[in-house]
Amino acid sequence: LSPCLLYGGYVFLPFDAPLLPSLSARLVYTLRCAAFATVPIVLGMVVSGISHLCSSALEPSGELQQEVEIHHTYVSQSIQLFILYFFNMAVLVTYLPQELLKLIPLLTGLFAISRLLHWLSYATGRPLRAFGLSMSFLPLLAMLAWNLHGIFGLEPHSLLA
């Protein structure tokens, strides 16, 4: 489903990436797009904090209730995935041609939406969790594969330069 969503967004959404000729401009563009991917994480932190305040497990040594644990797990997994996602996007933007830079905000939007879907499915039922997780993890694997191909296949002479 992730490739279909990315392709549909690339073809049908009426926006283009700005002209970014330099590497620094591309990295700043990626950084600005990545800021939007933090919205679900910050929202999860707020809900996690509220659930901590409303739970009866306010003692530091006490066990967390299931509602609190769901939000805490979501936030920690999302932060880990975001770090991997952001670094892979930062490397990806150095290899992409100008006409494919539209993928950066699309990948960011896909990450944010998939994390929200994962959170919703995690809170409602365990069998649905894999869908949201795979929507955010499989594009990460695809970016990693493309980045490794770019590093070792496209520019092996400048690997250590």
UniProtKB/TrEMBL annotation:
The UniProt record lists the keyword Protein transport: no
One GO term (biological process): regulated exocytosis
Keywords: Membrane, Transmembrane, Transmembrane helix
Claim: Phosphoprotein is one of the keywords in the record: no
Bilayer-crossing regions: 33-58, 78-96, 103-122, 128-148
Location in or out of the cell: Membrane
GO CC annotation: lysosomal membrane; trans-Golgi network membrane
Any Pfam family: MAPEG
Protein name: TMM79 protein
